[in-house]
Design brief:
The protein is of the alpha+beta class. The protein is built from one helix and three strands; from the N terminus they run E-E-E-H. A three-stranded antiparallel β-sheet has the order 1-2-3, with no helix packed on it.
């Protein structure tokens, strides 16, 4: 991780499905990350972040 060149994050839209994507170039590799949300989920984004933070704190 020391010598890789990290470029700016760019948000773009995939033309076929209109799904938002995060595109990140690290060195000569381009990563495309798409997100999706469950329509049946009962957990809010705030609840999920709080749960993840609590789990992270437990591991310390």
């Amino acid at each position: 991780m020391g010598s890789e060149k990290i470029t700016e994050d760019t948000t773009t839209t995939a033309p076929a499905k209109d799904v938002p994507a995060l595109v990140k170039k690290i060195g000569r590799t381009t990563y495309i990350v798409r997100v999706h949300f469950s329509k049946t989920s009962r957990e809010t984004m705030s609840d999920k972040i709080k749960r993840m933070l609590k789990n992270e704190i437990r591991q310390m």
